[in-house]
Every structure is written in C-alpha cells, then in structure tokens.
Amino acid sequence: MGESGEDETAEPPPDRGTPEAEPARLAAIVDAWAAAIVANDAERIAGFMADEWVIVSESGITDRQAFLGYVRSGDLTHAAMEAVTPPRVRVYGDTATVTARITSTAHYGGRRFDADEWTTDVLVRRNEHWRCVLSHITPAAPPAGS
Asked: pTM score, two decimals?
C-alpha cells in the first residue's frame, strides 16, 4: 500500500445503482477507517486520507504526516472507537460530510484518554474513490445533571 492513499482501494467498491446508495457507502468507509484506527495500522489508516488531510481538535491542527507518525511510533494507539449515533451523511457532488457522535479509548504518550466527541469528516471523491481531507472533533457536552 502506498503512502498517499490516492490510488488505493480502502473503501468498498462503488455501488452505482442509485444515488441513495452513496450515503451507505460513505458510512461504511468511515466505519472501516475507524476499524483501521483501532487496529493501529498506519498503512490502512493512510488509505482513507487524502495527502492534504488534517485533523482539527481542541489541541489545534495535526497534519497527515504527523498523525501517521504518532501511530507508527506507537505513541498514539486506540483500543476502542464506537459510534453513539447513526452517521449523518450529506453528499454534495464529489464532496461529502459525515457527522456522528463517537466514543473512543486511546493512549497517547503512555497516558489513557477516554473521549466522547462529535466528529465531522469531509471527504472528496477522486478517481471514483472517497478520501478524507478534513476531520474535526469537538468534545460532546456532558449529560444533563452530571
């Protein structure tokens, strides 16, 4: 698998039967990407990202190279990643957004982090393959009364 992920087929094959099939395909892509993250497999993770991918979080912006470097070094690992809500998928031609509430357990620098976050991924279709160009995570509000 190449570093760029641009020509790889990490996602399910296209179902060109109906336009309604595309949201389900995108949800499956995001699920497969989460599985790659939990497997801590940098090469599989890279297959879902465009070269220009970045993640925006409360700590700032991290680019693709840095993120994959953390995974390869073992500094960043994930033990769990689960959707709490069904994904909200919107397709705008060759661009799509996928938003869902996600819980995860990660370790960074040997320290455990349990997260409950809203995530939004922006994907673009290039050469019939969807690649994520931007991920944004926002901590979810704690439940009322906590």
From this structure: 0.84
